[in-house]
């Protein structure tokens, strides 16, 4: 696993030990950022089910000014910190060990909007509809922002969710990427 492009291009990233997380493959990560970027001119990102932090770090490498990383797994949090230190992005990141729904509520109280929200939940624990509701309730997506969901191939996400409209859906092996923007 590595950073695909940008200023940290080529740096290797650690994976979370054990089998509790499913890292996004480099192929899927590259496809994701080619769809939504591929580069950014600043902005804030939220990596909600961060795992190793690879998606948020990729966003930082490609130009996001800051990223909030959230995961509830203790080993994932340690891995995110190690990867941020290795890539030199510690000062551009906030890392929280928390449940995704509680984290969205906490972030929502800060009156912040994100240009990029990355959702890569464990395939067996999909709560996308609830998450979309909280993103809408707390106005977490900036007007020109993008939300990207990585799911299993068989998961069907809605065409609309509050103000979010499905822009694009692409499949890569057993992984599906779905991109939402504000309508």
UniProtKB/TrEMBL annotation:
The keyword Methyltransferase applies. Keywords: Methyltransferase, Transferase. GO terms for molecular function: 16S rRNA (guanine(966)-N(2))-methyltransferase activity. It is an enzyme of class 2 (transferase). Pfam families: Cons_hypoth95 (PF03602). Its EC number is 2.1.1.171. It comes from the Bacteria. InterPro entries: RNA_MeTrfase_RsmD (IPR004398), SAM-dependent_MTases_sf (IPR029063). PANTHER family: METHYLTRANSFERASE. This is 16S rRNA (Guanine(966)-N(2))-methyltransferase RsmD. It comes from Shouchella rhizosphaerae.
